[in-house]
């Protein structure tokens, strides 16, 4: 069984081929960072146009790396949402065309759920129930999975996502787009305790996240202390901001471990590439004696291998889904 996945929810055009044992035979990710960098953030209309330009090349290149022809693909998978509607429609329409032309099933998957299933590509035996912390540019959520494919949303951000907060502070300091990787790099040399950021607390005691307060506090400190690249405390400021975001994420995860007593923990999403977050997540898992799993960095940011991985699990439960050409993309979950 060979499955071809397509992911175009945001600003990466990606295609991947996996076999039935969830092994990656080819995974091509074409980033649009250069297209959006001059604007300091993603321009949705440019993103969808770029997907149209890239999709044929990305799928062909992926098949070539896998050493397969389209006629050898037995199922297609694609991200249906959430994401940028124009971007999603490019991948969804393309995947529908392929499935229809080749008379194969099409599995439409949820972007957040596929991020969680990225962890299963390298670890097939993650024990349930699972508590998954998904941290990306558009979402910051906690999910519980009591069994495969049974996703229960426990908490989400009430305003900005964690990645969005990192990207916005980086933009404000002219560090380029996307800001997360630059902050990761700069913070490694800094003292994360130098600047103070109060951890947000939900008055209703919920596990929800909030990051817009950090962003506002960060901007206030930047103005107050005149923080810029030349400032002697520049890297300490970056490290402190990063530390505050990580502290909030792991504080809520720690509380959720008390409430839900999971058998395993997963950390996923683009921000899960952050080295300090990876390190401290594994320390927390170790401290709480719960096995913790984080996909390799290249499987954390948006990619089609995770789309195909989730679709394989869905096909295991429903081996021959009907081809539904009326499927529509959805921008929000
Ligand atoms: O999951 P993803 O690729 O796209 C969304 O679904 O949003 O996540 C992108 C986010 C961006 O905010 C980016 O700045 C962040 O992941 N990111 C990082 C790192 N690499 C990417 N954040 C912190 N440290 C990194 N090394
Ligand atoms: Zn994502």
Provide key terms for this protein.
five-stranded mixed β-sheet, 333 residues, binds zinc ion, single chain, alpha/beta
Written description of the protein model:
The protein has 333 residues and is of the alpha/beta class. It is 44% helix and 18% strand. The chain has helices spanning 33-36, 44-66, 85-102, 111-117, 119-122, 162-172, 179-187, 212-225, 234-260, 275-287, 297-300, 304-317; strands at 2-7, 12-19, 24-31, 75-81, 106-110, 130-135, 140-145, 151-156, 264-268, 292-293. It has a five-stranded mixed sheet, with helices on both faces. Helix 4 crosses helix 12, helix 6 crosses helix 7 and helix 9 (234-260) packs parallel to helix 10 (275-287). The structure holds 5'-O-[(R)-(carboxyoxy)(hydroxy)phosphoryl]adenosine and zinc ion.
Secondary structure layout:
Layout: E1 2-7, E2 12-19, E3 24-31, H1 33-36, H2 44-66, E4 75-81, H3 85-102, E5 106-110, H4 111-117, H5 119-122, E6 130-135, E7 140-145, E8 151-156, H6 162-172, H7 179-187, H8 212-225, H9 234-260, E9 264-268, H10 275-287, E10 292-293, H11 297-300, H12 304-317
Parallel strand pairs: 1-4, 4-5, 6-9, 9-10
Antiparallel strand pairs: 1-2, 2-3, 6-7, 7-8
Helix pairs in contact: 2-3, 4-12, 6-7, 6-8, 7-9, 9-10
Bound molecules: 5'-O-[(R)-(carboxyoxy)(hydroxy)phosphoryl]adenosine (KG4) and zinc ion.
Zinc ion is lined by residues 111, 115, 136, 269-270, 302.
What does this entry show, briefly?
The protein is α/β, with parallel strands linked by helices and 333 residues long. The protein has twelve helices and ten strands. It has helices at residues 33-36, 44-66, 85-102, 111-117, 119-122, 162-172, 179-187, 212-225, 234-260, 275-287, 297-300, 304-317; strands at 2-7, 12-19, 24-31, 75-81, 106-110, 130-135, 140-145, 151-156, 264-268, 292-293.
